[in-house]
Amino acid sequence: MPKRRNRNAGSVAAMTLASAMALSLVGTSTSVAQSARTANTKTDVTINVAIAYPGPSKNLLDQFTAKTGIKVNYSYIQWDNLQTKIVAAAEAHTYFADVADVDWSKVGEYYQTKWFLPLNKYFNPSSLYSQYPQLASFVRNGELLGMPSDVSLLVTTVNTKDFTKAGVTKMPTTLAQYAADLNKVKSGGVVQHPLDIPFAAAEGLSTYWYELTAAYGGEVLSPSYKPEFTSPGSPGYKAMVWMVSAYKSGLVPKGNLDLEDYQGFSVDQAKNLTASVFSDYSGDVGTVYDVPSSSTVVGDVSYIPTPGANGPAPNLANPDGIGIPAQAKNVSAAVTFIKWYDEAANQAAFAGAKGPSEVISGFPLPANVGGLNDLVASGKVPGAAELATLAEHHSRAIFPAGAPPWYPAFSNAVYTNLHSAAAGQESVASAIKAIASQVASLGG
Amino acid sequence: MADRAAGEGDDPRRPARSGNYRDGGQRGLTRKAPSGLWGLGTQRRPGRDGALPYLMIAPLVVFIAALAIYPTVLTIIEAFFHSDVLTPPNRFVGFGNFTDIFSNAQVRTSIENTGWYALFGVVLTVAFGTGIGLLLQRPFRGRGIMLAIVILPWALPGVVEGVIWSWIYNPTVGVLNSVLKSLHLIGQYQLFIGTRQIETILLISLVQVWQITPLAALIVLAGLQTIPDELYEGASVDGASWHRVVRSITLPLIRPALAIATVEALVMSLNIFDQVYILNANATTGSSLMSTTYFITFSDLNFGQGYALSLFATVVTIVASVGIVKILYRKVEY
Is the model's pLDDT at A18 over the cut of 50? Predict the structure, then answer.
């Protein structure tokens, strides 16, 4: 018995020792890393930036470092993955980045969860509205949760060559005319399925519905977040019927049931498998359709005023922003970076004003009026002047009162049910009912 | 196999095969375990190493405790709490999260879908894995290259495979449509994924089967390599057909390997996520338990329900795995 006791004691001691060794290894590496970090802070500052865009050119980042002494460790993370990382880090109260993506749809959520720092101390929203056309999308109850990092609009694009071939010489301004013209393109054999709607159960489908609802003259949620789409005569209901009918009637390619928005642009529209995108992203003509290496419709696609129920419709804002996570380590350096990123000259360069070397791939339009003016003045981006006008004077927030905190759950219900309706698994009425029921359960 | 047969008789360290059936002649030959470490030295007495074994496994224990046990315990606890960052505070709700998730039609659909994923995944993976294992059992020219090719899909991340197969299934420009049309099996290009539930699940499941079959094949192959040649030689002398040999010798003797391969396929199928996410996004036609858990947790931010669903998935996985082991696993000794 004593021997056995001794052996157990030895084993426990050994395990404890080994555990201590393992933990001390972890501890040592952590403290070494912390020491290194402290040491670095004394000489220079490195910030981690995680944005759902490719980074600015090395040349521009080097200029920033030379000017400010701040080194930038830039991570480009695909949008959906980035949102997951933000949630995981915030929920774990863990440092993730000093500057991170703040999408317009997340503003209500971040206001509620306090996962991002209000920026009012560094930027005064009331003095910036005139310079930033889509700033309102980032303000919730007076709190500025992110600075716009671009201007993005939901716009309509048309392959004018296809439309002309089908005998359409005057671009449509109403939805009825738009549908008639698409049918002409189809029946004329120009393009078999002329309309792109990305019906995959993903965010792009939801935004398409919002834009079409706006084109019918309404909004999906009231300012107090009540459903405004339940009546068959409501714009939201009509918009859903229109989308599902377009799919079932063959205006939309069958394969679009599994196609996400960006695939629709780069596969369907850029390869002339479709002739029009009703709810496209501003900037796609320059960054997708006019790119010879990946497009067969270079020079053929143009922006047109978005057709509405009785004439041109408003263009909904779909901007991205950047903000500072609550666990950021270098807040002042992060603020410096945001200010630099939003400088008019840099914004214009990201959008192509200084040529391809400074372009951020997929960047829509400069976030501020100064950048928009610089871009237009450069004359290097097709359609820039029209888009700048739309952005400054015709864009509207998707939710004028700001995105509700439960927006992701709402959007999930929208795209899941809209997809099911197109797939024939439920009727439009049933989809509408399910979405409204979700809104009610979320407290809308 | 030929190399092994040629060499083993000359190796004095290798234990001789007794040829006796320890279990009454039903399950296989009895092979005596080699004595001592690696079969080279004298047998060590228990306790002689003192604390050394514990010292050696301690780092692993620490890591498992930190990365598996702690999260599991946390999941069990949190599953009974309301934990929704949008509607604080967190509070104990008993089985409230479970009631909520099981009354959610989307969750119920995903559970049903996951049942189909498990069925397709297990049956196809084990069938293909066993078939490949049998094909690779005997040496032939280029066997090494074949093994490397077979293993390739296993090395690819699920997301990459999802992307590759999304092009194969693409209804506009996909290879599958092109092949079927050129064979005159379809008149026009078809939409394979998204409209019909079972078809969607089967096709997504095939992508995962393609990925995990190599592992199953290797497990089965390892099992096949342990079967003594004498048994096959005896069967050959007795004039047994290939079919009879497989049914009466091979399959019974690789039951441990089959059990492991089946459990592996089951666990992977119950946890299918990447392929579903890439090929079908969040559409209910193919949503899985894991994809629904992901959306509830990271999109809806309802962590309590996410924990509850994770716990449910864990329990189902454990119960099903234990059930399979009980049914399939039989100890085989030579």
Answer: no
Q: What is the CATH number of domain B95-328?
A: 1.10.3720.10
For B90, the token pair is 């967190």
**Please, are residues B92 and B310 in contact by the beta-carbon 8 Å criterion?**
no
Across the interface, whether the CB atoms of A273 and B172 are under 8 A apart is answered yes
Confidence of residue B37 (pLDDT cuts 50, 70, 90): very low
Subunit contact A113:B170, Cβ cutoff 8 A: no
- pTM for the whole thing? 0.80
ipTM: 0.78
CA distance B47 to chain A (A): 8
Residue B247 near residue B130 (C-beta atoms within 8 A): no
Of the candidates A135, A127, A130, A128, the one whose C-alpha atom is nearest the C-alpha of residue A151 is A135
Q: To which H or E segment does residue A281 belong? A: strand A276-281
pLDDT per residue over A307-342, tens digit each? Answer: 999 999 999 999 999 999 999 999 999 999 999 999
At residue B265, what are phi and psi to the nearest 5 degrees? -65, -40
Q: What is the pLDDT of residue B146?
A: 87
**Using CA atoms, how far apart are residues B77 and B71, in angstroms rounded to an integer?**
10
The packing angle between helices B105-135 and B197-225, to 10°, is: 40
Which among B86, B172, B295 is the nearest to A255, CB-wise?
B172
Q: Long-range contacts for B25-28 (Cβ within 8 Å, ≥24 apart)? A: B27/B252, B27/B253, B27/B330, B27/B331, B27/B332, B27/B333, B28/B227, B28/B231, B28/B252, B28/B253, B28/B332, B28/B333, B28/B334
- Considering the segment(s) A45-151+320-392 as one domain, its CATH architecture is 3-Layer(aba) Sandwich (3.40)
Min distance A193 CA to chain B CA atoms (Å) = 11
**CA-based radius of gyration for chain A:** 25
Contact yes or no for B281 and A17 at CB 8 A: no
CA angle B251, B257, B258 (to 5 degrees): 60
Q: Would the CB atoms of A423 and B279 count as touching at under 8 Å?
A: no
Query: Would you list which residues of chain B are within 8 Å, Cβ to Cβ, of chain A?
Result: 47, 50-52, 54-56, 58-59, 61-63, 85-86, 106, 166, 170-173, 189, 191, 193-195, 279-285, 295, 298-301, 303
- The span from the CA of B31 to the CA of A208, in Å, is 68
- Contact check, Cβ <8 Å, A202/B195: no
Cβ-defined contact of A88 to B298 (cutoff 8 Å) = yes
* Cα–Cα nearest to B222, from B214, B233, B234: B214
Distance CA B116, CA A123 (A): 54
Tell me the CA distances in angstroms from A304 to A174, A190, A227, A383, B185, one per residue in order. 11, 20, 30, 10, 43
CA dihedral sign, ordered A57, A149, A77, A199: negative
Q: Is the pLDDT of residue A422 over 50?
A: yes
Residue entry with tokens 């049910």: A417
Options 3.40.190.10, 3.30.2310.20, 2.40.30.60, 3.40.50.300; which CATH number does A154-316+406-442 get? 3.40.190.10
Closest residue, chain B, to A260 (C-alpha)? B281
Place of tokens 């309309």: A195
Å from B258 to nearest chain A CA? Answer: 36
Largest Cα span, chain A: 100
pLDDT band at A382 (very low <50, low <70, confident <90, very high): confident
Indicate yes or no: CB of A423 within 8 angstroms of CB of B62.
no
Contact A155, A300 (CB under 8 A): no
**Contact A420/B283, CB-based, under 8 Å?**
yes
CA distances from B323 to A175, A196, B317, B320, B329 (A): 59, 49, 10, 5, 10
